[in-house]
Design a protein that fits this description.
By secondary structure, the chain is mostly helical. Helices cover 72% and strands 0% of the residues. It has a single domain, classed as Up-down Bundle (Four Helix Bundle (Hemerythrin (Met), subunit A)).
Length: 147
């Protein structure tokens, strides 16, 4: 892989997160088709928010989660890029975000352990918190020197 600029390094895990979203859409489609084939649901059931059987419902909820907190990672990344303020810590935080999202997806889609899901959510949330905190610091032009 060629040497990536700091903005590209920051965006890479976010683009990979988009790949997770695409994979979740595919998994949801597959799970719903399987549920229809097994007679657990009809195609019309999916018109309602509560129409999914348990397995597709977990995937659907996780997919919805991908458009909640992760939006803030993108906002922060774009702010850091347009202000030319991307640091190695931001890149690390973006990777923490992605790894946390992946773990959270596995935990949520494979079972109903809400306590564990909350614990692993903390991983990606820390990444987003760093990114938003640094973006806030940069955009608000705060400095430790008071200048």
């Amino acid at each position: 892989m060629p040497d990536l600029s700091p903005p590209a390094q920051l965006l890479l895990p976010l683009f990979l997160h988009f790949g997770l979203v695409v994979a979740l859409y595919a998994a949801l489609t597959w799970a719903r088709l399987a549920a229809v084939r097994r007679g657990e649901a009809t195609k019309n059931d999916f018109a309602r928010a509560d129409g999914d059987p348990p397995a597709p419902a977990r995937i659907q909820r996780n997919l919805a989660n991908q458009f909640e907190a992760p939006v803030f990672a993108w906002i922060a990344a774009l702010l850091l890029i347009v202000t030319s303020a991307v640091t190695v810590q931001d890149v690390a935080a973006a990777w923490v975000f992605l790894v946390g999202r992946l773990i959270h997806t596995v935990v949520q889609c494979r079972g109903d352990n809400v306590a564990l899901r909350g614990q692993v959510f903390t991983i990606n949330f820390l990444g987003v918190l760093w990114l938003m905190g640094h973006a806030f610091y940069v955009v608000m032009d705060l400095s430790l020197t008071g200048a």
